[in-house]
Amino acid sequence: MTIPHSVAEVLQSHVQLELECVDRMYLNAYVPQLQHDKGVVGFFRFHRGHTFASSALMKPISEDFVARLECFAKEQGIPLIRFEKGQRKDDVAQEYLARFKGREGLLFIGKAQEKTPVFRTERRRHPKSGQSYAWIVPSTGMVNHYYCYGVDEDFGPFFLKFCSYFPYNAKLCINGHEYLKRQLQQRGVAFEALDNGVRSCEDPRRLQRLADTLSAEKIDALLRKWLKKLPHPFTPKDRQAGYRYRLSILQAEFSLTQVLDQAVNGRVFFEQVIRENLDLGRPDQVQLIFQRRLTRRTPGRFRTRVITAGVIPSLYVDYKKTRIKQYHKEGCALRTETTINDTRDFDIGRSLKNLPQLKTLGFAANRRLLELQTITHDCALGEERFQKLQSPVVHHTQRAAALRFGDPRVLALLHALVLFALHSPKASVRHSSVSTTPLCGDLIPPPSRQGR
Q: What one-character-per-residue DSSP string does 305-350 give?
């Protein structure tokens, strides 16, 4: 068993499978017209035909939506549970998922009370007449949210969370690796799965092509599909009038998984990287990863953190609200993952249509981080080659003296070699009449009689 001595050797010689894939995505489903007070007033006065807009009009339609949702769960035999305080929702979902045997369907509907933006009625008085009137204002409140955990035939496990109070904003959570596994299964492509990824595949090129098929259009189609299956907060007449959900990106993770041939190579990688790259979070370094110019006025925290879970280290690099995480996954793969929590860190809108731009940015950041780590640890003249240069060698019984780095003549020779390396072959032929002897003669002093 050969153990690599550098980051470059690990990445070049010990990676068996490489996969770029969208990982977890958390999306906001909202009705654009109902995100501000004037739009809410227009909904009740001009669309629904009420004389005044008031939060009193929101209560009955909210109660109707909750009643229809709970009745749907009872009729379909879907468990309706209330999450306990401090209980991890994903752990509950995994328990139900382990017992689920179908290709598609709802696992359960969970209820939890959470703080959320709402609209309330505020009593105001006219400054001249003194007459009081109702006024819609944005506020916050503790409201029940309904988590619809399910399994989709094309996307695998997901959840759709509804706020039970007007304007019924929702959240959609999907996982790109689960989508990829479903696509492989449907096409009969043999693979070995990781907990959140792919360990091996009989057709690696097709694996990457299928991962690239996850698009904004398919994610939007997933939302529309399950809005039709579940009780909808808005009536058909509301939707015909243009009150329809749209998707925006709250959080997106873009991962590069490199499966290694031996677990020890992953440990070697992190030992080298952590020792040499603790300054990656500095502004002058992190701007190389994201290719964004940073100044003293740039907001956000720029830092590097090493977090150890047991004996497994993870490297975190923060840039504004974006984070790159690098860790040893399940003892067999190197996972480099860029998580974008605010697309406007990169002057990109939050709309789902911007997903292609974010994919390009996230995957490129992963690659540049690895390149920066490789260059930091493995410069053009590596430690092994540098030591060999300074040692004498024997070639066909003839001994050649060492080139001691501090010797002025050696430095001049290396300087000349670097200059020659910058000349292309075509330029050498085109200017062959120009002799380079004076250049070398100027740089290398004549040997003394006492020299070798």
A: EEEEETTEEEEEEEETTEEEEEEEETTTEEEEEEEES-GGGGT--S
The span from the CA of 404 to the CA of 387, in Å, is 10
More confident of the two residues 254 and 299: 254
How confident is the model over 301-318, as pLDDT tens digits?
655 666 666 556 777 888
Residue 253 dihedral angles phi and psi, to the nearest 5°: -115, 130
229-237 contacts at long range (C-beta below 8 A, 24 or more positions apart): 230/69, 230/72, 230/148, 230/160, 231/65, 231/68, 231/69, 231/72, 233/65, 233/162, 233/168, 234/31, 234/168
The overall pTM is greater than 0.90: no
**Which among 325, 321, 319, 253 is positioned nearest to 292, based on CA atoms?**
319
Return phi, psi of residue 431, to 5°.
-115, 35
Which of these three, 244, 263, 283, is where a domain ends?
A: 244
Cα–Cα distances in angstroms (integers) from residue 321 to residues 28, 250, 309, in the given order:
17, 11, 23
Judgement on whether residues 351 and 223 belong to the same structural domain of the protein: no
Q: Which of 87-96, 167-176, 379-388 has the least mean pLDDT?
A: 379-388
| 107's tokens | 């696992």
The residue count of the chain comes to: 452
> Do 18 and 93 share a domain, yes or no?
no
User: Are 125 and 105 in a shared domain?
Assistant: yes
Q: 405: phi > 0 → left, psi -120 to 50 → alpha, else beta; which?
A: alpha
> Residue 180: inside a domain, yes or no?
no
Same domain, 283 and 326: yes
Query: In the 8-state DSSP scheme, what is residue 4?
Result: P
Which domain range does residue 302 map to? 1-31+246-379
Give CA–CA dist 259/201, Å, rounded. Answer: 11
Predicted confidence (pLDDT) per residue in 93-124, tens digit: 999 999 999 899 999 999 999 999 999 888 88
Question: How many independent structural domains does the chain possess?
Answer: 3
Q: Let me know if residue 173 belongs to a domain.
A: no
Residue 121 falls inside a structural domain = yes
The encoded tokens of residue 400 equal 């050649």
